[in-house]
Amino acid sequence: VQLVESGGGLVQPGGSLRLSCAASGFTFSGFSIGWVRQAPGKGREGVSCIDSRGSTMVSVDSGNGRFTISRDNAKNTVYLRIDSLSPEDTAVYYCAGRPTRSLCSLESSRYDYWGQGTQVTVSS
Question: What is residue 76's three-state secondary structure?
């Protein structure tokens, strides 16, 4: 099982970013995928997840809609778009997988497989 994140970098406040998570080595369509971030000196925080079929998505800020998650099972890839970035979004962003067809979860402890992370830095 391999998950590889990409798309991180330095972004100015107010900007947007799209992260990608490429999966290999397992039946991607049978896994729910989550995005979890860890800011310096803080614990892991689940920010968004999507179920195996892409029919149910959960985000930590569903009201504001800054996080948009999607998946392309044909390409074995999950995407996370983050809008209106602020310095508080600075963190390492990880994608994580869990072999389930049930609803996804923002609880990081429920995920079995993890990528190496991609750094997102929001600064002017």
Answer: coil
